[in-house]
Amino acid sequence: MNSTTAPASNDALNATxxxxxxxxxxxxxxxxxxxxxxxxxxxxxxxxxxxxxxTRAQAGSFMGLATDRDYATEVTLQPLERFPLDAAILFxxxxxxxxxxxxxxxxxxxxxxxxxxxxxxxxxxARLEVPDMDKLRYVFDAVSSIRSALTxxxxxxxxxxxxxxxxxxxxxxxxxxxAGSDDYRLVKTMLYARPDLMHSILAVNAxxxxxxxxxxxxxxxxxxxxxxxxxxxxADSAFQTFSLAYTARVLAQLKRHGPxxxxxxxxxxxxxxxxxxxxMAALDCDxxxxxxxxxxxxxxxxxxxxxxxxxxxxQGNIDPNVLFAPPAQIEAEVQRVLHSFGPxxxxxxxxxxxIFNLGHGISQHTPPxxxxxxxxxxxxxSRAMRA
Length: 387
Prior knowledge:
By secondary structure, the protein is α/β, with parallel strands linked by helices. It is built from 16 helices and 9 strands. A 7-stranded parallel β-sheet has the order 1-4-5-6-7-8-9.
C-alpha cells in the first residue's frame, strides 16, 4: 500500500474542475480550499423521500428500479431537486457485482437483500470469476444517463457524480451469509477455518470491483467510492489481512483519470474502522470516510496532513439519528462536527479538508425537512467559519 501519488498536472486539474459548475466537492477531495464545506449524504436517494417511494412503486421492486436506466436517473436526481447538495451519487446497490457472478440477488420488501446461491463450499468458490461487465451494462447506462441529465446548457455538470461499489470484504459477507447477518458466523467461520477459500473469494471480488469501478469511470463517474460497510466487524489483524489488503488491491487497479483527462478522486469508507486510521492512511486513495464514533480533529491530526504536505481529505461524520432531533438541535450538532474538524484549509496549495456527510446511511424514517435544515446549517456555518 502506498499513500503517495504523483503530483497532478495543471491540465488534469483544469479538466477536473472545469467540467462541473459546482466543484467544491472535487476540490475538497483533492485537499484544495473551498468557500464552504461541501455536503452530500450516504443513501441520499432513498425511502425517506416520498417521491422516491412513488417511483419505486411505479418500478414494482427495488431491482426494477435499480436496473432501469430511466428510473435510476430519476431517483438519483430527486434529492438534488429538494436540497442544494454538492454531489450526486449513483442510485444502485453494493451487491450488483455478486449478482452478476450468478448468485441470484433479490430484495423482499422489508427484508433486505438475499442471494439464492450463497458461496459456502469449496466448489462454490471454485466457480467464482470476474463477471462479464456487459451483465452490469444497466449500471453504466445509468451513469451515462445521469451525467447527461446533470449537464447544463454550458456543457458542465451541475454537480459531480459519484460512482461506487461495496468492498471485497463487504461483498464476501453477503455472498457467504446469503443475506445480512447479526453475527457474521458463517463468513467468519470460513475466514478462520478455511482462510484459503476466503482469500480466493476476496481476490475475485477485488478484481471484479476494480473492473466495475473503472467501467463506471468510463461511463462518466467523476469520483468513486468503496463502501467497506462491514470492515468494522473484524478483529484486529483480520481487518488488515482480509479487508484492508483487498481494498488496496482494488485501488491499485483503478484508473486515475477519466475520459477527458480529469482526475477521479477515490474515497474509502469503513464503518467501524476508526481504530485502524493509521493503517488506512497508507491506502492509495484521496478521501477517508469516517463514522460517528471518530473525532474529526483527532483524525485530522493522524491522517489529514499539514498544509502543503500529503494527507487524506476526511468525509463525515454526523450521527444519522441526529436528523430525528428538532432543527435547532440539528444545527447545534452541525456546528459541533464542523468545529471538531477545526479551521478549514484556506489559500493556495493543498491542506486539510472536510466533506460533510453522515456517519452511515440516512434512515428511511428521516423527515425530509430535517435534511433541509442540515444542509442549510452546513453551508451557512461553514461559510461563517471562513469569513
